Amino acid sequence: MKTAKFVGYLRWFSVCLSLLMSSLSWAQGSPSTGWLTSSDHDAVQVKLAVTGEFNPETRTLPALLTVQLKDEWKTYWRAPGEGGIPPRIDLASSQGIERIDWHWPTPSEYYVQSIRTAGYKHQVTFPLEIVVSEATERAQLDAVFTLSSCTNICVLTDFPLQLNIDVNQLTPDSEQSFAFAQAMSQIPQPIGSAEVTHADYNADDQQLSFVLSRTSGWDSPQVFVHSDDKQLNEVVFKLVQQKVSVDGKRLTASFKASHWLELPELVNRQVSITVNDDPFSAAYATQLDRSTSTTTNEALDSMTIWGALFAALLGGLILNIMPCVLPVLGIKVQSLIANSNASARQVRYQFLATAMGVISTFVVIGALLGLLKLSGVRISWGMQFQNPWFITTLAVITLAFAINLFGLYQIRLPQWLNQWALKSQRSSLLGHFSQGVFATVLATPCTAPFLGTAVAFALGAPMYLLLLIFFGLGIGMALPWLSIAAFPQTRKLLPKPGPWLKWVKPIFGALLLATSVWLFTLLTPHWSKASSESTSAEQTSERPWQTLSFKTIHQAVTQGKVVFVDVTADWCITCKANKLGVLEQEPVYSALAAPDLIRMRGDWTVRNDYITDYLRAYGQYGVPYNRVYGPGAPEGIELPIILTSDAVMQAIKEARNE
Predict the structure, then answer these.
(1) What are the CA-CA distances from residue 125 to residues 85, 128, 396, 564 (Å)?
(2) 29 C-beta neighbours (distance < 10 Å), count
(3) Do 248 and 217 meet the contact criterion of CB atoms below 8 Å apart?
(4) Domain 534-656: which CATH class?
(5) Are the CB atoms for 116 and 225 separated by under 8 Å?
(6) At what angle do helices 344-374 and 427-443 cross, to 10 degrees?
(7) Is residue 57 within 8 Å of residue 46, measured between CB atoms?
(8) What phi and psi values does residue 609 have, to the nearest 5 degrees?
């Protein structure tokens, strides 16, 4: 009897003990998973632990997710960059868990060849906030933590995270709370000693540009971009090569945005910039403005397609009186005079052939620029003159034409082509067509009024609009030839042929010879390393020009000085005309020598990305470009393409606030 009674008491005690142990399993002060490893990948171990400090108002429970990695293994940040997968937690099997909010420590950048990623090595602790569904109920965390880790290979590992959480039974753990506070101190926050001064997005080249300033300057900053916007979840922000530059207190970084399917609109979207400049670490949320170099910027917003086409027609027409084209135009007029006995039909065909040469060359140039743009190349008007092989080829062709005009030899077509031309009675038309091609190629280093506006619109527009605008440029430049083709009788207005014509060819030959010599001189910067690395080509002891620098412009304006910026190139005929006709003439010459005026030059003869960035900042795709800054115009006053003394003097006065 006593034995049976004892057995009953023992059973009752066992039940109570079981209930007590079960209760204790829900009432741990700070539940933890302990260290978890995978038999398939022992280079990584993880642990999840909660602090026990539950906040009933926000229904949040702080926790720490610690990842330890052996040797050179690394894992990834929230925006891993060009490769990698960010860590993630799948809560699908959990009960009573609404979500988990992550906090991400400042990452470091890693390169595998040219691929840049953002992440962590050795150990990283992620502060988490577990949000439960109800503040008075138990919750069951039954999640899967997926972690990507890499060395020369990458491994994707799943770790089960299982915790029983009774918010009414939790007790704070001081050690875990201290560790959580330490981990949160590593999360980048905005710091007042630095700020984002510029953030924009250029839809044309899909690039984000940021400028950050810091009172104590920068050392070796690493910059990372991400967005919490769900529509931007799969957008990759790739750091553009060599686009993180430091200029004293100013940091400039550019990122290329891409999406595996279709890139969403980024203008006016919120992004975060994280900067790691050990020991400085900060993050700033900013809104992306529309880039001033985007074709839909304020300068071009009001321009319709018809407006751009009208500008293209005028710009192309004006090219005919630019120094670049005059030799070829003169040769054409001379040939018209010499063949005054030709029938109206012959004249019409010849001039139509030349016009077709002009138009088709413009369309081909537009197509090539469009293809380069699609491939990611930063395109610009006249960019081919930054290539020494193009310059050499054009110089040799120009020299050959010059020698031909002097009568030293005759340019002959290959025999098979000559026979085909004779059979088809188009031998002369090929020559006239080539004149149009040649004139167009020689015109590309020139920038005329209206041309810059049309080209800026075209180079930032979709492919079909780009081709349409370049077709308009071709029509504009071909108008003189098309006019004579339409009205052959206009040749009667020209002088009658006579003995004086024998001097015309040598004169135009001399012009082409001078053009050839000039083209050969353009190769000098490519031969001279010092010249090719310079951003402000010219220095003289009497009137020195300073190197183009945003920082210097800002400092000078802050000090109350005026800055005159001249962006030029040796191959730009319009630039030379501005220099000789205005900048080196009175009263501008003396005005630019004033003590309170800084003269700054950017030499774009050879490709220079810094100068390209400067031009793009103002929606420009070619040279010449002149701008005047000062206390009265801190953002600068843009000058016309063809400078005049009045325009320069007036801009200087306005910049001085006079």
Answers:
(1) 17, 9, 66, 52
(2) 15
(3) yes
(4) alpha beta
(5) no
(6) 40
(7) no
(8) -65, -30
User: 3-class SS at 66?
Assistant: strand
Cα torsion for 136, 137, 138, 144, to the nearest 10°? -100
pLDDT 10s digits, 20-36: 444 444 444 568 999 99
Q: How far is CA 264 from CA 236, 261, 267, 418, in A?
A: 12, 9, 9, 55
Closest listed residue to residue 293, CA positions, set 212, 204, 210: 204
- 587 preceded by cis ω (within 30°)? yes
* Pairwise CA distance, residues 257 & 206, whole Å: 6
- The structure tokens 């049309």 sit at 454
**Class of 36-185 in CATH:** mainly beta
Q: Class assignment of domain 194-290?
A: mainly beta
pTM of the model: 0.47
Backbone angles phi, psi at 133, to 5 degrees: -70, -40
DSSP labels, 104-157: ----EEEEETTEEEEEEESEEEEEEEEEES-TTSEEEEEEEEEEEEESSSEEEE
Cis peptide before 506 (omega within 30 of 0): no
pLDDT tens for each residue of 112-139: 877 889 999 999 999 999 999 987 778 9
- Which amino acid is present at 432? H
Q: Where are the domains of the chain?
A: 36-185, 194-290, 298-522, 534-656
* Cβ within 8 Å of residue 78, ≥6 positions away: 86, 102, 104, 226
Asked if 76 and 87 touch (Cβ cutoff 8 Å), the reply is: yes
Domains 36-185 and 534-656 share a fold: no
pLDDT tens, position by position, 338-366: 566 667 788 888 889 889 999 999 899 88
Q: 464 CB contacts (<8 Å, ≥6 apart)? A: none
Look at residue 76 and give its three-state secondary structure: strand
Q: Identify the CA nearest to 36 among candidates 46, 21, 44, 51.
A: 46
Phi then psi dihedrals of residue 549, to 5 deg: -155, 125
How far out from the chain centre does Cα 209 lie? 7
**Residues 6+ away with beta carbon under 8 Å from 458:** 308, 312, 366, 465, 466, 469, 470
